[in-house]
Design goal:
It is a single chain. The protein has helices at 2-17, 28-47, 49-52, 58-63, 68-78, 84-94, 99-104, 107-115, 123-139, 142-152, 155-168, 173-183, 186-195, 198-207, 209-224, 245-256, 262-276, 287-295; strands at 226-229, 234-237. By secondary structure, the chain is mainly alpha-helical. Strands 1-2 form a two-stranded antiparallel ribbon. A hairpin with a 4-residue loop joins strand 1 and strand 2 (234-237). The longest helix is centred in the N-terminal third of the chain and has 20 residues, at 28-47. The protein is elongated. It starts with a helix and ends in an 18-residue tail after the last helix.
Length: 313
């Protein structure tokens, strides 16, 4: 165990170097050793996972390893200082056979696709995905790249990377391109709103006003699909694929706990939609009124604001 921990600490130095110009001195042999070392440590981590439960001291150090082989590969692929021979060797290791020749035609795009294959949703790996995606967006037109990734990459991984990129630097040009693409793709936006945890979406909505408005419209569409079941006294989804009452309540609860202006915008929307339904404080008449009641007395006792656009299915 101690030997493995020492190897992890030594490899962290290699990982740090992989993002610097020092890799210009790496040849194919050095790249091969680094990738093989990373893969060995990943397999060792998998075998020792059960043993970590009883090791409080070692557990966090070993647990932090998860996904570092992905991070190493992404950094090397995206590092222009890596020499041509070393880069070809890396591609052969990552894309065996004919795939290596295709990957050489689009070095940076191959790096993005590698990152978006999937894998652990660990913080360091997500940050590496987001940074590489933003770098690729700065290199050329965003629409074709993002449409291609949306069509071919695992969507869960793509959506996580998209959210991370939007949170890294909200004012940068790459997030602006990413946000423009996302708001122009209704299917991608709906998938993002459905797949990400409520807290993550609240953070995105707080950073990007345009995304906040789009998120509230999506929540409105979900709410319109709920139907009140009188015998059970519950709101039920009209179809199994629709969002449930519990999920909708959880997402509005996350928004209601956020600081202004996000909290104010979410409550204002609920109050306006409730007012259009009559604002009767009786359960079962309006999903919006019931959501206000479920959020607590503080949320349901605010002055009525100007109404946003009426929610539609």
């Amino acid at each position: 165990m101690e030997s493995l921990l020492q190897q992890l600490e030594r490899f962290s130095e290699v990982l740090a170097v992989s993002r610097t110009a020092a890799v210009s001195a790496w040849g194919p042999a050095a790249v091969r050793r680094a990738v093989q070392w990373a893969r060995y440590l990943r397999r060792a981590h998998g075998r020792l996972r059960a043993a970590l439960e009883g090791r409080r001291r070692a557990g966090p150090r070993l647990g932090a390893w998860c996904g570092r082989d992905v991070v190493l590969s992404a950094r090397l692929l995206g590092n222009r200082a890596l020499g041509a021979a070393a880069h070809r060797c890396l591609l052969r290791l990552l894309f065996p056979g004919p795939a290596a020749r295709l990957a050489r035609l689009a070095r940076r795009r191959a790096a993005v696709r590698l990152l978006l294959r999937g894998g652990p949703a660990e913080d360091a790996a997500l940050r590496a995905q987001a940074e590489l995606l933003r770098r690729r967006l700065r290199d050329g037109p965003a629409g074709g790249l993002l449409d291609g990734l949306w069509a071919r990459a695992p969507r869960a991984a793509f959506l996580r990377a998209t959210a991370a990129a939007l949170l890294l630097d909200p004012a940068g040009p790459a997030p602006a391109e990413l946000l423009r693409w996302l708001l122009g793709r209704a299917d991608a936006l709906a998938a993002l709103c459905r797949a990400l945890p409520a807290a993550r979406l609240a953070a995105l909505a707080a950073r990007h006003p345009a995304l906040r408005r789009a998120y509230l419209r999506q929540l409105a569409r979900w709410g319109c699909r709920l139907r009140y079941d009188l015998p059970s006294g519950r709101w039920e989804a009209a179809a199994p694929a629709h969002v449930s009452w519990a999920e909708l309540r959880g997402r509005f609860l996350s928004l209601a706990r956020a600081p202004p202006p996000l909290k104010d915008a979410a409550l204002a929307a609920l109050e306006a939609w409730s007012a259009r339904d009559g604002a009767f404080r009786v359960r079962g008449l309006s999903v919006w009124t019931d959501l206000l009641l479920a959020l607590g007395p503080g949320a349901a006792a605010r002055p009525a604001p100007a109404a946003p656009p009426r929610p539609t299915v």
